[in-house]
Amino acid sequence: MNKFWLITLGIIAGIVVLSNLGHMIGLAVSLLIVYAGVHYYLKSTSTLAKVWWVAVGIIGGIAAISNVPALIGVAALVALWMIYRKWNGQSVSVTAVKESDPFMNFEQQWNKLTK
Q1: For a tag on the chain, would you pick the N or C end, based on fewer CB atoms within 10 A?
Q2: For the whole model, what pTM was predicted?
Q3: Is 62 a member of any domain?
Q4: Torsion angle, CA of 30/20/75/37, rounded to 10 degrees?
Q5: What is the rounded CA–CA span in Å between residue 101 and residue 8?
Q6: Is 112 part of a structural domain of the chain?
């Protein structure tokens, strides 16, 4: 890709990331609140405490839903990272991680043991 287009796309992605930075911080905080609510709900023993932590989790979930525009910022951040890698000449590929066969490791270990 031409360096001009890399610079142009990088500037656009940077502007999008900066414009969604508040939403991204809000999403991180609200997901932290949801995590705390679930974590303390699982640790609590009394019914009142469980009700309290469910309420905290629901409030955090509502806050997370209100920060959905942060996903656009996260996508722009990923695009900025890919543009940076392309600029430095590193390979950029978006592929799904292939899961290996769980029995393949067993077969290799078994072959080592039987030698």
Answers
A1: C
A2: 0.68
A3: yes
A4: 0
A5: 43
A6: no
DSSP H helices in the chain: 3-19, 21-43, 47-66, 70-87, 102-114
Taking the C-alpha atoms of residue 103 and residue 99, their distance in angstroms, rounded to an integer, is 12
Position 98 in a domain? no
pLDDT in tens, 80-96: 988 888 888 877 776 65
- How many residues comprise the chain? 115
Split into its structural domains, the chain has a count of: 1
Q: Give a yes or no: residue 83 inside a domain.
A: yes
Q: What torsion do the CA atoms of 8, 10, 13, 17 make, to the nearest 10 degrees?
A: -140
CA distance 49 to 55: 10
